[in-house]
Write the structure tokens for this entry.
Amino acid sequence: MANEMNATIEQMMLTIGQQARLASRAMARASSQQKNQALSNIAKAIRRDVAKILAANARDVERAKAGGHDAAFVDRLTMTEKSIETMALGLEQIVSLDDPIGQITPFKQQASGILIGQMRVPLGVIGIIYESRPNVTIDAAALCLKSGNA
């Protein structure tokens, strides 16, 4: 049973990684306006679907309790209308940030006469491991989106 579950998780992660890699190419080409519009749309969807989010979170909390997770884990996992609104506000704050992609640091002249500068570019695919903090999902996704990453 454990081997079957590990194989399923491994396949799921491989699929997610492959899909993210494909998406990363489009993300890298997205304009600032497109990225900001997507983030604004996500904030609107979060506010629109508060009841659905709370219902899904209640199921997650019950599974965590039934699985024997400690009170601190369950507390971090538990969402409220206020925490969901904070997620939407966080998205709007990220929209207000300058797009980092394409920014170039001031050039520095080397002794050889060559000018060297750095340009910010997307990394591609970013993976983050964390537990029982639903707000981290939206924060991480929003920052990845703003910086042109999948």
Notes: Strands lie at 108-109, 115-116. The chain has six helices and two strands. The helical segments are 2-29, 32-48, 50-66, 71-77, 81-96, 134-146. Residues 2-29 form the longest helix (28 residues).
